[in-house]
Design brief:
Elements lengths: L2 H23 L4 H12 L13 H13 L4 H40 L2 H6 L6 H21 L6
Helix pairs in contact: 1-4, 2-3, 4-6
Length: about 150
């Protein structure tokens, strides 16, 4: 393995450890209870705007909410995964713009960012938004420059 791979793995491990405590330690917040209702009932929820506002996230949460117990750890699993994925995408984006060191610094800043720690350990869609935004910033310039449809 190359040195930059070790650095990324170390940053990801720090991110996992920092986020793991919050996933297990804290009870549900009110917004997370909305996620349980909206992801379980989908189009039949009484909450507005419901799934119409955030369909991708609730459709991903739905199989988990109907098949596993409604615990904070279960609800926060998908945002946790997106949080870690967001760190990797940030590394890829910054590496393409600033080189390996820039990628490592950017990934570390996201890994220890209080907002990102909270968003990736909270049972809502914020870490998914971060991943999608980071993907746009990383891939859209490549799509425009090359015209290659795979980047779109």
């Amino acid at each position: 393995m190359k040195r930059k791979t070790y650095v990324l793995v170390a940053i990801i491990l720090v991110a996992v450890l920092v986020r793991a405590y919050g996933i297990w330690a804290f009870p549900f917040e009110q917004d997370e209870l909305y996620t349980i209702d909206e992801a379980t009932k989908l189009f039949h929820t009484k909450l507005l705007p419901g799934i119409q506002a955030r369909p991708v996230f609730f459709l991903m949460e739905h199989p988990i909410m109907v098949s596993l117990p409604h615990t904070p750890v279960v609800l926060r699993a998908i945002p946790f995964i997106f949080g870690i994925l967001g760190i990797w995408i940030t590394w890829m984006l910054a590496k393409s713009l600033l080189g390996a060191r820039g990628g490592a610094v950017a990934a570390l800043m996201v890994a220890i960012s209080p907002w990102h720690i909270y968003a990736s350990g909270f049972g809502r869609y914020y870490s998914l938004l971060y991943v999608l935004a980071a993907l746009v910033y990383w891939l859209f310039p490549k799509a425009v420059d090359t015209g290659d449809p795979k980047y779109y």
